[in-house]
Structures are given as structure tokens and as C-alpha cells.
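Protocol step 4 of 6: structure prediction from sequence.
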Amino acid sequence: MSNKRVFFIRVADRPGVLFRITSVFRRRNFNIESVTVGRTSAPGESKIVISIDANGDEADSFARLVKRIIDVYEVVEAPQDSCVLRELTLIRMEENDDGLKDICAKYGAKLTVDGGVFIEYCGEPQNSDGLLQELSKYKIKDISRTGITALVKDSGKDILRFGR
């Protein structure tokens, strides 16, 4: 069973909030695999999505510690298999090779030639890894990955909510 956990943290949109949250993980010597932040539809509020590899007890402990931080409104913690995950990957290639079109078609990626040769992929993180593996036989100049963003499925299991 996977230990990949996702935290959805609703916070006040203020300076220093992300630092205080990531410090909880740093103090416990845990590696954050991915972190994304964006505003929500509520004015003055943001959502932070953090992905880590932790067992259930460790994840629950983190959620409780993060919940105590000022400016944190709610913490939702879920296993990755209870979420819809997406990641944006941008890849700059050295040259436009004929094989790139086939690889892009296989993954549903977009190939653009405009001031360089770029591949854009948005989808599940493991598919992004597969795309990069297949492209490794070509000359990759640069890669940029956003990290995951996610939403909990309606049928999600083992979801824990810590709110005010």
C-alpha cells in the first residue's frame, strides 16, 4: 500500500504562512515531494497542496501540528489514491526530431515550435515521468515541473479533516 499522502491546507493569503507550514515538515526532517499554492474563490484565502511520503500516524501528526498554526483555516489529509492528481511539465528540446511527434501523441502532450522546441504535458505525475523517460533518448535542454495539484474524489476514502 502506498504511503503517499496529500495535504490540502486552506490558509489566509498572507506573507509567511507557507514558511510556517513547511517549517513543521522541516523540523520533523520530512521531505516535501511537491508543494503548490494558489488563491481560492474566497477573497483573501489560498489553498496549499503538499505531497509527502508518510504513514498514516505521521500524516495525522503533521495535520494536527499544521492546524495549530495561525492563519490556517482547515487541513484535509488524504492518501493519493483518493485524489485526482495533475501536474504540468514543460520540456525544452535541443531540436525538433520526427520521433517527438509520436511520443507527444502517445501521451497527449503538445509540441510547439516557437522560439525553440517545447513540449507541454498536463496529466498524472507518473505519466509525466514516463514521458520524460521516453524523451531521454533525445537531447533535453531544460525541464520545468509544477508539482502536483489535486482535488479529493467524491468517493475518496481515509480522508481526515481538521477544521476550526
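Step 5 (inspection) to follow. Strands lie at 4-12, 32-39, 45-53, 72-79, 83-93, 110-113, 117-123, 140-145, 149-152, 160-163.
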